[in-house]
Design goal:
Blueprint: E1 14-24, E2 39-46, E3 48-53, E4 56-61, E5 64-68, E6 74-77, E7 85-93, E8 106-107, H1 110-126, E9 127-128, E10 140-141, H2 149-170, H3 186-200, H4 208-214, H5 219-230, H6 234-252, H7 257-263, H8 269-280, H9 284-296
Antiparallel strand pairs: 1-7, 2-5, 2-7, 3-4, 3-6, 5-8, 9-10
Length: about 300
């Protein structure tokens, strides 16, 4: 047989990494701001900040991510109350798909958070010194870095960019969680506020009346808003948020199923299992087993 190769198209190519930081600012941190000839992303892992991007001042909260294009003056401003934790990555990339990223507030979903976590993890082994210095201008390669660490950092960052591009510029995902739509406006801000309200109360039992009352709107107005933004009502949205939290707790492996059900406010293990299977098409135990199987297939050091 005459086999022929197929060249794989590289839509995103990260050529160089300039900086990788994960740190917690003091609540009164002051930074003079800067501009440079490479891309820089900032993702809020905890708290909130004001980000200066050129002439704009943008509010960023937990889960928000913002890309500063080369040459843009940018800064981070804390609010004096909350000490935010940030992921900041500087990188060189000439891919055209990034043209729409500059100045656009996006949000990272669970898989994208994992990619950022993997970048930080690989960077801890690839470079000497802590990653918590926001003034560090050069990454110092480790003497004996893990095999392929630098390549994985670039690969994970490329995958993050691809995921965000697909979600915001090709076809926005319809499944929860998707905390923010690309469109801006009053309705979007209200949806964001309600989503955060539900996320902050993931361990409670809420009624649609309570959700509406706490967000200063009527039940019908609430259901109409969430239906337009997320394609479901308040209780279904809250249930999906709980299931996503349950998946994370199962992956963490620190609690048994009964403890997870209790932590997330379910009335019984039976009801939790039924709701989980309805959302994930498998029981919590089946989900846990599938994750373990996948993790056992990951190559170990020395393999």
């Amino acid at each position: 047989m005459a086999y022929k190769s197929t060249l794989l198209k590289r839509e995103v190519s990260v050529r160089k990494i300039i900086s990788i930081h994960y740190f917690q600012y003091m609540s009164d941190f002051v930074f003079p701001g800067e501009s440079h000839d490479f891309w820089e992303l900032v993702c809020v892992d905890r708290g909130e900040i004001e980000a200066v991007a050129g002439s704009r001042r943008i509010s960023l909260k937990r889960g928000d991510i913002l890309f500063h294009p080369p040459g843009e003056f940018h800064n981070v401003i804390t609010n004096g109350k909350i000490s935010p934790s940030l992921v900041v990555i500087g990188f060189a990339c000439g891919s055209r798909c990034l043209e729409g990223f500059g100045g656009r507030v996006m949000t990272v979903q669970a898989g994208e958070k994992e990619l950022l976590a993997k970048i930080i993890l690989e960077a801890q082994g690839a470079f000497d010194g802590p990653l918590g210095d926001p003034y560090q201008e050069k990454l110092i390669p480790a003497k004996c870095p893990p095999f392929g660490a630098g390549q994985l950092i670039g690969r994970y960052l490329e995958e993050l960019i691809i995921c965000l591009y697909r979600r915001y510029f090709v076809a926005p995902a319809r499944d929860i969680p998707e905390p923010f739509r690309p469109e801006e406006g009053e309705g979007n801000e209200a949806s964001r506020r309600i989503l955060r309200y539900l996320q902050d109360r993931v361990g409670e039992r809420l009624t649609v009346e309570q959700i509406a009352r706490d967000n200063l709107m009527g039940v019908s107005q609430l259901e109409k808003l969430l239906g337009k933004s997320w394609g479901c009502g308040a209780i279904e949205l809250f249930s999906r948020i709980k299931i996503d939290a349950a998946k994370q707790l199962i992956r963490d492996g620190q609690l048994n199923m009964t403890q997870i059900a209790e932590r997330l406010g379910y009335s019984s293990l039976y009801y939790f299992s039924r709701q989980f299977k309805k959302a994930a098409s498998m029981s919590p135990s089946e989900y846990a087993a599938s994750i373990r199987i996948l993790s056992e297939k990951e190559p170990r050091a020395g393999d």
